[in-house]
Amino acid sequence: MPTIKQLAANEAKEKRFRGGHSLCSGCGIPIVVRTVLNSIETPVVVVNATGCLEVATTRFPNTAWNVPWLHVAFENAAAAASGVESAYRALVKRGKLPADEPVTFVVFGGDGGTYDIGLQSLSGALERGHQFLYVCYDNEAYMNTGIQRSSATPFGASTTTSPEGKISFGKAQQRKDLTAIAEAHHVNYVGQSAISHWHDLSDKVKRAVEVDGPAFINVLSTCQLGWRHEPREAVKVAQLAVDTLFWPLYEVVKGRFRLTHIPEEIVPIETWLRMQGRFKHLFKEENAGALEVIQQQIFDEWERLKERDRNDRAHFAPLQKDQTFTTEFEMV
Amino acid sequence: MKTKPTEAERIEMLRRAKLLTGAEGAAHAMRQINPDVFPVYPITPQTPIIQTFSKFVADGEASTEIINVESEHSAMSAAIGAATAGGRTMTATASQGLALMIENIYIAASMRLPIVLAIGNRALSGPINIHCDHSDSMLARDSGVIQFFVENAQEAYDFMIMSVPLAENHDVLLPVLVGQDGFTITHTAEPILLEEDEDVQNFVGEYEIPYPLLNLQKPTTQGPFDMPDYYFEHKRQQQAAMDAVPDAFDTVANHYAALTGRRYDAIEEYRLEDAERAIVVMGSSAGTMKEVVDDLREQGEAVGLLKVRMFRPFPTKKVREALGHVQKVAVLDRAMSFGSKGPLYMEVAEALFGAGPSMQNYVFGLGGRDLFPADIRQVFENLKNPEEMREMQYIGIRE
């Protein structure tokens, strides 16, 4: 497991993502970016979909990026990365770039750019097998354009395009399971992590960049404006998303599944929902039914994931005494 | 003034030529250029370009990284990624594919990326139609790319090659669309003269852009966010790049002529110098028109043809010089701008503003509708008749 000191040492060595950007206080995205970039030992090249991260870090003539960085449009980050990575291979093949100095290609996209408008280009790039890591920072709505619902927005959340109202309890549809969709491409690494669990994310990044072919990590990232919580509580809100089992942390390595974190105490979903203004309306008397539905769905999904974990556990290194989970990586 | 080759020249040319379609000609040009990356998605009538080129790569005759993407949007996105990274990049498309690319065509131009695209010009939906017209390329009219329309397979081959050093000229650094008429050129076999592989490779040289993304020693932020304080200047710089094209093209065309003996200009004047009536057109129809012009000339009629090869940047001054003395001009558009005149007509009208000729606009050939020599003779005939000088007419249509 990485220590915070190691990540800090990597950052001190080469500050890949710098300050001066205009992301909000309490935004989860910089935690994702710094944890990912500081966990990669090789030089990195970043491709970024349109979204908060792109807009807030590259206002011309300034940039927060101290690594090669490319943005093309909203829906095509994975396709643009396919081109960069293919050019890299072509130039290595033709002796125009050194073959013995590996580079890691990392794509960052939000849930709008990944779950929705960019899903096709992500799917194409995963199927073609480019060597890159795609990191989705999932803050569960189109935050950059003012909190519109996305297919990652949870059931019942109020957004500006799924507002709660006299006859509406917020978003009426379930969220899309993007991590499962990525897994269906049979890539060698897929994971789900959260900004509250930086060690878990860092571990996953280290494993993801080692596999052959593309890797995908879906990271739950908070948005204090859209979720309507106190900016200082960003990490706590993410932590509770994990502890309520709303956002389970797991990985699928070469098709084998395991949970990478099992909360010591499972917290009722109500605790997490109450922290966020986007769910406030669910606590009106008339919406009590929605709360029950949400809690039941979370437990059902958790049972399903635990079963997968039990079935595949034998493929991973055995647990040490007193361990309920391990982040040590060794497939058996 | 361009004259037809002599019979002896024709025989010598045929002896050295290969029988190839325009699509195959473009694919041979790409084989000889051997770009680093070729992201591509199939669409009729461009598909034979990518099929032929894929076979060249499969046979080891080119070592390009082909990316078989899942859409034209991704083809152009990957092309932007590859060209930014520092690899010479080409792609090909048509019709709906170009429509799907358009967002990225604008971005590639604004990022000043010298990507060369082969276009098999085809009508746009709807209704869906796979045959030729120029509406697809016209979608890219205001995008900031250089645009050529070629007359035949030889020009398709030659312009693919010439476009590489033109696009990569550091005063230019713009994408180039080489449009060849769908089916009429893409699928029709003609004798083409191919240059030696080594000569083409020397002609295009090494790909070199000022700020390759993969220069890890000098990290760059590419495709950043502009607010009103910079956007306008960046767009102004794109116009400056366009302004550099005519001189850059002249240099390229001169070098190419030295290599091949074929000297191309942005326009081709055919029997224009003493013409009283003239037609302006782009693409394969110019070939048919030259035959008609010859026939009418034999009958003593003072007619001529202006073929426009370079549509963007539009060679305004050259067009004015070529047509200033003509009394009556018919501009034949193979695309429409609904609610206004044809796009080529608008350019020619602007070029001739305040000059002598009276003008007429025809639309022809949409969705692959044939244009016959009799139609062209009728256009020349109409130019004699003041009553026929209506602003907009349609050729070969059932009203």
From TrEMBL, chain A:
GO aspect biological process, one term:
small molecule metabolic process
**Keyword Oxidoreductase attached:** yes
Q: Where is the Thiamine pyrophosphate enzyme TPP-binding domain?
A: 50-219
Q: Name one Pfam family in it.
A: TPP_enzyme_C
Keyword field: Oxidoreductase, Pyruvate
GO molecular function terms here?
oxidoreductase activity; thiamine pyrophosphate binding
Instruction: Establish whether keyword ATP-binding is in the entry.
Output: no
Taxonomically, which superkingdom? Bacteria
Name the coiled-coil region(s): none
- Name the UniProt record assigns to this protein: Pyruvate ferredoxin oxidoreductase beta subunit
TrEMBL record, chain B:
- What Pfam families does UniProt report for this protein, alphabetically? PFOR_II, POR_N
Which CDD domains would you find in this protein's record? TPP_PYR_PFOR_IOR-alpha_like
InterPro entries annotated for this entry? PFOR_II, Pyruvate:ferred/Flavod_OxRd, Pyrv_Fd/Flavodoxin_OxRdtase_N, THDP-binding, Transketo_C/PFOR_II
Q: Name one GO biological process term.
A: carboxylic acid metabolic process
Protein keywords: Oxidoreductase, Pyruvate
Give all residue intervals belonging to the Pyruvate flavodoxin/ferredoxin oxidoreductase pyrimidine binding domain. Answer: 28-252
Superkingdom of this entry's organism? Bacteria
Q: Name one GO molecular function term.
A: oxidoreductase activity, acting on the aldehyde or oxo group of donors
According to the entry, every stretch annotated as the Pyruvate:ferredoxin oxidoreductase core domain falls at: 275-376
Q: Which PANTHER family match?
A: PYRUVATE-FLAVODOXIN OXIDOREDUCTASE-RELATED
Name listed for the protein in its UniProt record = Pyruvate ferredoxin oxidoreductase, alpha subunit
Q: Which organism is it from?
A: Gracilimonas mengyeensis
Q: What is the lineage of its organism?
A: Bacteria, Pseudomonadati, Balneolota, Balneolia, Balneolales
